[in-house]
Amino acid sequence: MIQDRSSKHRLLGSEPWASLPQDLLELIAWRVLAGDLLDYVRFRAVCSHWNSSTVPPRGRGLVDPRFHPRRWMLFPEGYGLYPVRHLPLFDDHIVIGSADGLLLLFRHPDTAIRLLHPFTGDIAAPTVMLCLDTKRRVAYAATGDRRWSLSAWKLPRLRAVTMSFQGKFYAMAVNSADKNNVYICRIDPPQPSAEGNHSLSLPPPRMLVKSPLDGARLVECGSELMVLGFTDVSLAHLVVYRVSDLTKGRVAPLASIGEHAIFSEVHALCISAKRFPSILGNSIICKNRSSRMVETHDFNPLLGRRAVRPAHPLVEQYDLGSDTWSPAIDEDIVHSDRTPASPYTLAHHIFTCCCRYYWNKGLIMCAAIIPNWSVKPNLRIIG
Questions:
Q1: In angstroms, rounded to a whole number, what is the distance separating the alpha carbons of residues 366 and 369?
Q2: 3-class DSSP state of 243
Q3: Parallel, antiparallel or unpaired: strands 224-230 and 260-264
Q4: What is the pLDDT of residues 307-361, one digit of tens each?
Q5: What are the residue ranges spanned by the domains of the chain?
Q6: Which residue, of 58, 67, 69, 351, is most buried by count of CB atoms within 10 Å of its CB?
Q7: Closest Cα to residue 34, out of 8, 7, 68, 5?
């Protein structure tokens, strides 16, 4: 009997792989998971033996950080639709933010905050901390709490939005006695109260380091916490520091961020430009008030011509290697009175993700578009 090549391959090649020992499969699976959750899902789908020998993500997606999704982004749909459609959960929820790859949801009827794993479907009401700028306090609630608690201490004046990194809160604060620097602070999760009555209390902010950067933003880049900003008030040169370097007294900007590109607006996001050829690696995409000058309608009799003013800031990309600026988005989305033509560029989509005011409405960022909420509008503007 003559076997065809495919049958022989199945007999000689597939069976040994399908009968690998469970402990070896577990070891390989954890290494796959360290790279990306979706690769881990594909690994478990190879055969029933591999599936039964490895830990399923469902049910562990929120509690085990190893199963948190990475390398993904939720784009707005546009046309006034929510960022995610065709899911019953979003009939009474909206997405107001994300942390560690998970989606933070806001429920209409009771303003409850819930956390969703977008790929396993795990959902819970976890311990949540929210920064209340107007009250200069942090609100927090743990699983099972029926009401929010406020921090006993007040926040300093914040320079930028807070961000979550590895289960902790980070903020950029201003000290009125030192106006030339911003302070990077860390707020740890609620801890058991000293009274021993099973209640929680929030530790006060811990000042990590100060930075002289202008327009500073915190960003997670390559699994590290970094801070970026302009070197001076001219807003012409950008630098990036590792926060861990600053805390150790090493005040030296990074010469390169490699294949990464950082998008910075109200929030900052880091992506791998290697996967997106249209985006320049080792760069920062943000609003840039360039040195270009434009004429106004006002005539200056002393000069004998129309007066000039600095051009409006445009969304441009700054090459950290060459210290140069170049256009990142063709249209002027910051000041144009017209909505940009679709289809939108990838850079436009990602830049919108940095401005939650548009993103959580499902709109693409443009000055001509004003997000309008008909239900609880005072609760919708999240960054």
A1: 5
A2: helix
A3: unpaired
A4: 555 556 788 899 999 999 988 887 777 777 777 777 788 888 888 888 877 877 7
A5: 19-53, 213-372
A6: 351
A7: 68
